[in-house]
Every structure is written in C-alpha cells, then in structure tokens.
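Justification of resources, computational component.

The compute hours requested in this renewal are based largely on the per-chain cost of generating structure records like the one below. Each record pairs the submitted sequence with a full structure-token output. That output is archived, and it is also reused by downstream analysis tasks.
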Amino acid sequence: MLKKGEIKEWDRQVKFSLYGKNGHQVTTHIVDFVITHLDGRKEVHEVKGFATAEWGIKQRLFEDNYPEIEYSVIDARNYYR
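The structure output for this chain reads:
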C-alpha cells in the first residue's frame, strides 16, 4: 500500500496509553499496526487469533480514549488460510 502510494505511512507495535474516566492512566495497549492515510487519518489494525477478556477491555478503552482513530480487527484464523 505504501509503495503504491495508497497510504502515507505505517508503523507496527505502537504503544498507546489508556485512561479511565478519572483521567488516570489505567494501562497501555500495544497495537499491531497504525496506518496513516493520505488525508492524515489514522487507523489501527489488530490481528487476533482469538479474543481474550483483557484484549476486549483494552479495545473498549482504546475506542473511548481515541474515538478519532478507526480500530479494525483482523481475524488471523481466516486471514492466513
């Protein structure tokens, strides 16, 4: 996608701080990839073989903390067949 000029850049293993409603940092979430589109929009891609309870909590916190960043989950069980 980068070579074709479809995206501006991408990074992997990006760390985000996650905060609770009280404004205190609760935890961090390291996402698999962050894509920056040509228009500057950011999108997270998370590749998952199976969902854990901890990941589900982090996903919800991420979406609350960073509503401007689209969070896409890629099911590795179907993707790598």
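The chain has one domain: 7-79. The beta strands are 7-19, 25-37, 42-48, 70-75.
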